[in-house]
């Protein structure tokens, strides 16, 4: 009888224990986005604007150097980037990558030549985190 009472008590208590929760990983205003160190670092918007313009110029220069046809691409190409905890950029293949493989390889070469970014930083966890961002690139035709 004692064993039955203890067993029932254990089941009752274990069912009412709160579930463990993971830390809050939602993005907040005070979290730090990845930063490209060759652009102004005081303001995230200025940094990403500078970064995007720099990427556009480098891609345009590479396209002209390699005489790559871009007539099948839209005027704005949205590039999806993974930035790991070390700041290393990886380009994610998108529809544009399949439309024009030479263009995608050229864009990948541009990102490979940049070097790492300062990674995103989750302030409530005090650790660098992975980030996935999409940046629009204007294609000059």
Number of domains: 1
Query: Helix proportion of residues, in percent?
Result: 40-55%
Strand portion: 15-25%
- Mean pLDDT score, rounded? 75
Q: Count of helices?
A: 4
Q: Characterize the main sheet.
A: 3 strands, antiparallel
Low-confidence stretches: 4-24
Oligomer: single chain
Give the distance, in angstroms, between the N- and C-terminal Cα atoms. 85 Å
Radius of gyration: 24 Å
Main sheet: strand order: 2-1-5
- How many beta-strand elements? 5
Which structural class should the secondary elements be placed in?
alpha+beta
The topology string of helices and strands comes to HHEEHHEEE
- Shape annotation: elongated
Write the layout of secondary structure elements.
Layout: H1 2-16, H2 44-66, E1 76-83, E2 89-92, H3 95-99, H4 101-114, E3 120-122, E4 127-129, E5 131-138
Protein described:
The chain is α+β, with helices and mostly antiparallel strands. The protein has one domain. It has four helices and five strands, in the order ααββααβββ. It has helices spanning 2-16, 44-66, 95-99, 101-114, and strands spanning 76-83, 89-92, 120-122, 127-129, 131-138. The strands form two sheets. The chain has a three-stranded antiparallel β-sheet with strand order 2-1-5, with helices on one face. A two-stranded antiparallel ribbon has the order 3-4. A hairpin with a 4-residue loop joins strand 3 and strand 4 (127-129). The model is unreliable at 4-24 (pLDDT under 50).
